[in-house]
Amino acid sequence: MKNGFLVDWEAVPGDCPKCMARGGECTYGGPDAEFACDCSGGKCGTKGNGRKIPLIVSISVAASLLLPCIYVLVWHRQKLEFFLCKKTSSAIEENIEALILAHGSLAPKRYRYSEVTKITSSLNIKLGEGGYGMVFKGRLDDGRLVAVKFLHDSKGDGEEFVNEVMSIGRTSHINIVSLFGFCLEGSKRALIYEYMSNGSLDKYIYTENPKAVLGWDKLYTIAIGIARGLEYLHHSCNTRIVHFDIKPQNILLDQNFHPKIADFGLAKLCHMKESKLSMTGARGTPGFIAPEVHSRTFGVVSTKADVYSYGMMLLEMVGGRKNVNSAAQESSEKYFPHWIYDHFGQEDGLQACEVTRENEGIAKKLSVIGLSCIQILPMHRPTIGKVMEMFERGSDELDMPPRQNFSQILSSTQFECGNHEHD
């Protein structure tokens, strides 16, 4: 012992340098012969404690990063919504940019919101309001009058806005309303259309005597114009467009009462080779929605859905009354198409609809075409092209279609769901 002795020991790699870095001395002792770091005030920590320190530091760092994140999620959820909305807006922007790129100089012009308010003189003249939003009269720098539609749907996914810009932006027809421009600025969305001085068709047919205002010849011309517009959408456009909301309120009349189809918010695009559409849920206005749009039991959804809506509109033009009427539903008043059938069967014909002998041919033709278009099964309806052919024939050459009965059709053993659908 006087000469001393050698002790052979091995410190855990990394422990001794850490100890010395803290001003301690590396020692070896204790009942378990463990490494220890000897500081002036005692041991700085055992081997086990030395390994726990990095873990504690890591947890502290993670907590310091996580707590602000939790704070943001809990107390600033509106900021999260902002980022989600921004993502949705980006998708809308991509669709709009694709439209502009595809059409070049022919694409509708994009306006800033400040420009739109200037066009409308700070929303000075209100033309109308609906579930979609509000419409104001305005004037472009070149003097053209316009109707500016401001959309309510400022949150959502913007489907109706994109539908309207993408679909109507592809069209160019005398019977389709022209879209001059649009505004997409955050949640602010607006569409700038040509101004139609005579408003919508509904205010002329839902009166005590609509024929006294327009006359049967004018109604007939309007009916043909709408059919031409639909034929263009269904067959002449680069991409087939199904409107899904044909009704008098969406038919606008210019200064010469030429009709133009408007409001493409519910429209769907499909390739020309496709004869049917895939869609979820019904779309349209009660009274004008085709049965197959409500239930696929009646057949596939196609352009024939627009034909059905068009037929209902023709009957309203003849009868001067709505096919959906809350007062009528509460009374014993008949289903509107049946009312038309019954008046055809009476001696006075359609005189209840202010039809004179000289106008009887026009009224009969509109009625027969309308009833043909509202056949319950889409395969029994004409295409809009066939409708145009029917207009070219005399009223005596058109056969009255069979009276419709939902229960009989549903129970028919010959009913095949859309197998004979042709467009």
From TrEMBL:
<protein>
    <submittedName>
        <fullName>PR5-like receptor kinase</fullName>
    </submittedName>
</protein>
<keyword id="KW-0325">Glycoprotein</keyword>
<feature type="binding site">
    <location>
        <position position="149"/>
    </location>
    <ligand>
        <name>ATP</name>
    </ligand>
</feature>
<dbReference type="InterPro" id="IPR032872">
    <property type="entry name" value="WAK_assoc_C"/>
</dbReference>
<keyword id="KW-0067">ATP-binding</keyword>
<keyword id="KW-0418">Kinase</keyword>
<keyword id="KW-0472">Membrane</keyword>
<dbReference type="Pfam" id="PF14380">
    <property type="entry name" value="WAK_assoc"/>
</dbReference>
<dbReference type="GO" id="GO:0004674">
    <property type="term" value="F:protein serine/threonine kinase activity"/>
</dbReference>
<keyword id="KW-0732">Signal</keyword>
<dbReference type="GO" id="GO:0005524">
    <property type="term" value="F:ATP binding"/>
</dbReference>
<keyword id="KW-0547">Nucleotide-binding</keyword>
<dbReference type="InterPro" id="IPR008271">
    <property type="entry name" value="Ser/Thr_kinase_AS"/>
</dbReference>
<comment type="similarity">
    <text>Belongs to the protein kinase superfamily.</text>
</comment>
<dbReference type="InterPro" id="IPR045874">
    <property type="entry name" value="LRK10/LRL21-25-like"/>
</dbReference>
<dbReference type="InterPro" id="IPR000719">
    <property type="entry name" value="Prot_kinase_dom"/>
</dbReference>
<dbReference type="GO" id="GO:0016020">
    <property type="term" value="C:membrane"/>
</dbReference>
<dbReference type="InterPro" id="IPR011009">
    <property type="entry name" value="Kinase-like_dom_sf"/>
</dbReference>
<keyword id="KW-0675">Receptor</keyword>
<dbReference type="Pfam" id="PF00069">
    <property type="entry name" value="Pkinase"/>
</dbReference>
<keyword id="KW-0723">Serine/threonine-protein kinase</keyword>
<keyword id="KW-0812">Transmembrane</keyword>
<dbReference type="InterPro" id="IPR017441">
    <property type="entry name" value="Protein_kinase_ATP_BS"/>
</dbReference>
<keyword id="KW-1133">Transmembrane helix</keyword>
<keyword id="KW-0808">Transferase</keyword>
